[in-house]
């Protein structure tokens, strides 16, 4: 997917989750890049609000990872356990 929002900037985590819901009907409860958690619905409200507002690469930059043009994200959907993430294809996001 092209991870570019309506404003021409890199999508936020919320925009990606909304796209996944609209396009595939998936309610994502956890979104990850490798071992870096971008979103976890089990976190407290303040943490979830911060996660949802961040651009996709913000957490990765905070973790010291180099800026990338493409991210491979894994995810867990509502009603699945964490092992199910291996059964779904990764979501490839192209960044601006």
Automatic annotation (TrEMBL):
Where is each Ubiquitin-activating enzyme E1 C-terminal domain found? Answer: 9-87
| Pfam family for this entry, one | E1_UFD
What protein name is recorded for this chain?
UBA1 enzyme
Species of origin reads Smutsornis africanus (Double-banded courser)
